[in-house]
Structure formats: C-alpha cells, structure tokens
C-alpha cells in the first residue's frame, strides 16, 4: 500500500475519530480500535484494490462508531474525501443502531444484495479482519471470547457464514473470494459439534494418524479415510466415493469430480450420518491409527 496523501489523510481522520476523540478499544480487549480499520486497509491493498477503496476501508467505521458530540456523517466524509468514498463507507454502515441485533444483521445481509463490487470487496476485507481475529482469540480463550458480543456464539458465527455466502454468490471472481471461503471453513468448524474420534489431538496430528469412517453395512462397503482434522468430506454419487480434504484445498467453487462435476458436501457434525452411498445405514468410526 503506497502511503499517498489520500491514504495519509484517511489514517489521520480515522485515528482522530477512533482514538483521539473517543479512545475506542477492540471489543473486550485493551487494543486500540484503530488497528482494525488499518488491517482492513492492508487487506484491501493486498487484494490490489484501488486507492479510494483502500481509503474507504480505513474510514469504514467512522460513521457507525462516531458518537454525539463527535458525530461523523456521510456529508462530512463527502466534503473531506469526495462523494464516492463517502458513499462506499455509507454502504457498509449499520445506521439503525436502535434496532435489535437480529434485525440489524438481517438488514445488513439484505444490503449485500445491492452492493457494488467495491462494497463487496470492502465488506469482505472487514469480515476477514474481524473473523480472523476472532479465530485467533478463540484458540487462546475458547468460547469465552463470545461474551464480548451482543449475541450468542451461534448467531455471531451464523451471520458471518451467511454474509460470506451472499458475497461469494454475488461476486465469485472477487480477489478475496478464496480468502473468505477458506475463512468460512474455519468458522464452520467452530459451529459444528466435533466428533471426538475424528478430531485428532496435537500429538496424533504430528504422526499423521487416520480415522476411517465406514458404512455399518459391510455389503455397502463405503468408507472415507480422514487425513485432515475436520468432519467434512465430499461425495461423488456416480463414483460412489468420498474424499476428506484439507480446507485449504477447497476453492470457492467447491470440489469437482473430473468426470461428473461438482461433488456434494457431507458434514458429519451436522447431518444424520446416513451413508451417502446406500442411503440406509449409518456411518461409524472403524479405527484410529496408522
């Protein structure tokens, strides 16, 4: 990211709003809030966004998080940075802070359907910055991290997943589509209750142990080797086979069979564990070992 006069001005303006006027911190943390919009700006720069979009990323919370006495309006941003940047910031701003959490997030999801590509890119960067930080904090503190939010864990994660799905459907070729799709896979692991037999501990992962999931009916013969610590596999009905893949290898388009096209995703943690081949018997863990 080039440190142009526009970027310098955006950083000074955002710092004034978040730090000098209000001393804002990240939710539940003793970290200056300005680190978040700066992270969004860096993500946008890495995605080769235009200079105005990067500036809007740095400014994206200045309307929403400003308070009476230091209120930032779209008109004020327009005067300082131009109408296009002000409109981009306004497009990702929740203006109805008086509404219940569920209604605000419902409106936010509806607005995604009207976003320009610049707004989609900015929203993607915002989600990446927020949810990646959430994942890192969750690794250290577990579900306690959700106490800092105004909604329970399932709603927080559900909203992220719905927003990511809406963005990728609107613009599958976005420079950040792969990043947010991978992020969605990480968030899904926090949503679905893990199967202990399939979630290998750190020592097991080091020696590449494998769990084999198979159909309880020996005549069916369906089975999947789990070489990656997640409860997802992809299934090709025509071949009758399943593949457990590392989340990093799954693209925004999903997984495709070379002969038969897109495979179906099967999540053991959220489905009835009915064998996808015979569709009659349940799946079971055969063994964990080499």
UniProtKB/TrEMBL annotation:
SUPFAM superfamilies: HD-domain/PDEase-like (SSF109604). GO terms for molecular function: guanosine-3',5'-bis(diphosphate) 3'-diphosphatase activity. SMART domains: HDc. InterPro entries: HD/PDEase_dom, MESH1. Residues 29-140 form the HD/PDEase domain. Gene3D superfamilies: Hypothetical protein af1432 (1.10.3210.10). It holds the Pfam family HD_4. Transmembrane segments: none annotated. PANTHER family: GUANOSINE-3',5'-BIS(DIPHOSPHATE) 3'-PYROPHOSPHOHYDROLASE MESH1. This is HD/PDEase domain-containing protein.
């Amino acid at each position: 990211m080039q440190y142009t006069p526009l970027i310098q001005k955006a950083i000074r303006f955002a710092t004034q709003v978040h730090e000098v006027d209000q001393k804002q911190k990240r939710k539940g943390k003793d970290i200056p809030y300005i680190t978040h919009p700066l992270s969004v700006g860096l993500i946008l720069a890495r995605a080769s966004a235009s200079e105005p979009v990067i500036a809007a990323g740095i400014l994206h919370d200045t309307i929403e998080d400003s308070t009476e006495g230091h209120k930032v309006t779209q008109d004020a941003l327009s005067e300082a940075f131009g109408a296009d940047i002000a409109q981009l910031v306004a497009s990702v701003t929740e203006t109805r802070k008086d509404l219940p959490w569920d209604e605000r997030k419902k409106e936010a999801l509806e607005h995604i359907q009207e976003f320009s590509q610049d707004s989609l890119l900015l929203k993607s960067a915002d989600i990446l910055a927020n949810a990646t930080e959430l994942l890192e904090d969750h690794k250290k503190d577990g579900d306690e991290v959700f106490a800092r939010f105004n909604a329970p864990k399932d709603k927080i994660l559900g909203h992220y997943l719905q927003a990511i799905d809406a963005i990728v459907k609107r613009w599958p070729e976005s420079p950040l589509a792969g990043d947010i799709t991978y992020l969605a896979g990480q968030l899904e692991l926090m949503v679905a209750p893990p199967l202990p037999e399939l979630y290998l501990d750190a020592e097991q992962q080091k020696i590449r142990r494998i769990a084999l999931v198979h159909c309880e009916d020996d005549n069916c013969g369906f089975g999947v080797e789990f070489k990656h610590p997640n409860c997802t596999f992809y299934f090709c009905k025509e071949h009758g086979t399943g593949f457990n893949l590392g989340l990093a290898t799954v693209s925004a388009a999903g997984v495709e069979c070379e002969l038969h096209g897109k495979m179906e995703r099967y999540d053991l943690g959220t489905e009835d564990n009915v064998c996808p081949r015979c569709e009659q018997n349940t799946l079971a863990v055969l063994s964990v070992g080499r």
